[in-house]
Amino acid sequence: MILSYESGRMTEKKSYREALRLEGSVSPILSITGAGGKTTTALHLAYEYKDVGNPAVVMTSTHLAIWDQPWFLLEESMEKLQQIRRRYGQVWVGIPMTKRQKKEDLGGSLPMQKMKAVSEAFFKEICELGVPVIVEADGARRMPCKVPAAHEPVIVPRTTTVCSVYGLDAIGQRICDCCFRPELAAEVLGKRETDRLEAADLAKIAADGNGGCKGVKRGMDHWVILNKADTDQRKESAEEVCRELERYGNRRILITFSEETERSEMFVQKQQN
To answer: Span 131-157, mean pLDDT?
Structure first.
């Protein structure tokens, strides 16, 4: 289930494309920022575009794990990109990093290869295809909350829509336990790293110019996605976050549930373990 919060009311939507008001756009460029759940969101969007016959290009402007899937392209070849995109209904493209990262960062212990962004010239070629482009533009080591560092996020040029992702499971946890870059989160909130994160705090981070709004330029649609609304308590927290965000002037908010992303999350975790 996907819910859209507008003017104090929750409205159920049938897809991310509908919820993000993308159904009338053939070639949007989406940059996904924030905390854990970005890759899951990208995967879900990619399958939605596949289902409507408009295969997307998925890439990263930072780093992204390489999965053992035929729709991954690890070189800058427009011919191969188009072949994979048409054959598999999506293509994920990047350049392999020479250094292999440890999976222990994700709860494992084996080495895991990642890919980095393609060149600016190749990115421009991709944009000229007139197809959906989905960019994972941030990193958070799967933690449910994040405040970006000075060099983050990396929102790509020509972005039409920015989706900032946050996990409702962060609420009630200590900042140092649930936030990537907890020292920056504490600074934005005027709290200590050992303090508990409240619903109002998550809203403040999402709405802050040094938080979820960082790098979002005029003309870009900005959405906040609150994921893991799986319990009654989290649903109540989601409503509180929405009210606070509305007070900050943010009226584009989505709430998602595990039943909506469970298959995608299981797939992502399988690739990373």
So the answer is: 96
